[in-house]
Amino acid sequence: MSKIDKNNGFYIPQLEKRRAKAKRFKYIAMSALIVSLAFLMFFLYDMFRQGIPAFKQTYVKIQVEITEENLENPYGFLDRDMISIVSRAWLRDLPNQAAANPEWLGTTQEFWALAGAESDQYMKGGENRLKDRVKDRIDELKESGDIRFQTNLIFFFTGDSKIPENAGFYSAIIGSILTMLVTMSLAVPIGIMTAIYLEEFAPDNKLTQFIEVNINNLAAIPSILFGLLGLAIFINFFGVPRSSALVGGMTLALMSLPIIIVSSKAALKSVPNTIRQAGFGLGLTRWQIVRDHVLPPAMPGMLTGSIIALAQAMGETAPLIIVGMIAFVPDAATNILSAATVMPAQIYTWSGMPEKAYIEKTAAGILVLLSVLITLNAVAIYLRKKYTKTW
Predict the structure, then answer these.
(1) Residue 75 confidence (pLDDT)
(2) Rounded CA gap, 262 and 259, in Å?
(3) Which of 2, 87, 136, 157 lies 20 to 30 Å from 367, alpha-carbon distance?
(4) How many domains does the chain have?
(5) Measured in whole angstroms, how far is the alpha carbon of residue 68 from the centre of its chain?
């Protein structure tokens, strides 16, 4: 091999080996990125493929003669095939609708009735357990335009149910909002104030170093341990109602505190010491320096860390299972002491159901949760850029 290299003038074997290694590392890194993106795209595709059908629901047109006999036995006015098509939940609710509209009595009313889960799955091309004659009846109704899809408002405005087609995400959404309000009101101010004290006011001694080391360790322990801590302290010792948004929010606040403290301390450390020294030179107190000159430039990082910690808490299931928020909750909580569930717990419950209709509801719940988490991260990025430009 020639000792003269066209690019460098002289041939250096070690340099060629380094270039080859760098090129291999570049290709390996690119391959890892492509594989990770492929897995992400496959996950999103699968969630959208299974979840989008849940946002539409099958309804069938029926005519009902409103009589006292039919209201006492809502199944009596339907033939055998229609009983298999129409939802049991809708039929059970028919007497309540008639009671709210007494002028219906003695008349024939036309309804778009909610279809059962098996009929809905057949309309969507999914697996079902319908008999052939019921399928033929649905095909006839489809040709006549007496069965169709409508927007599934039940999913967004109804709580959980043992009847698949009547199960919704509303109670989980409300429970998550109440839980995160408790978490945010506790974790954010306490975490930020703790970081300010440790970074700006606390003396640098062994006690402070011991506290900081333990805070860093708490940020890395499994989240289920915080659930056990919440069960022992908040429920067993203080008597906070089990399955409530209050106990769930307090438990998630414990889990979020170390992350908020660590990120806030890092944001405070990023502020140049020259700002503090200039403040002391002007005769300002330490609190005036922190309030007026240190906090404003550190705020983007502190907000980002707090929002990311809350987003992580919103996606947690394990600690909430320990404090009882995995329970069946059909009605939305009205306050922080009422029984509640959260979106991750509801998704976990649906994923264990045997009915096929719950598969698409699980995927739809994941899409809603992902949308919320992406929104929170987008807000964090926006706030960071906004205040960074300001300062």
Answers:
(1) 77
(2) 5
(3) 87
(4) 3
(5) 45
